User: What shape does this take?
Amino acid sequence: MNGPLLSMRAALILLMGLLVGIGAGVLAVLAGAVLAQAFLTGAAAAGVAVPFFNHVVG
Assistant: This one.
């Protein structure tokens, strides 16, 4: 059991989803949203981005 915890593909997809979520959250804050709203916006964007990137990269 010395293999990696995640494959390179899974790590890339999760990283891209995380970056999309952070970007959406930052844009929401810059647009005047409250921090909680920005967090939910980023989480929703990341939740949509992961399956999208899974389809695109796969």
Remarks:
- Helices lie at 8-30, 35-57.
- Residues 21 and 44 are 7 Å apart (CA to CA).
- The mean pLDDT is 96.
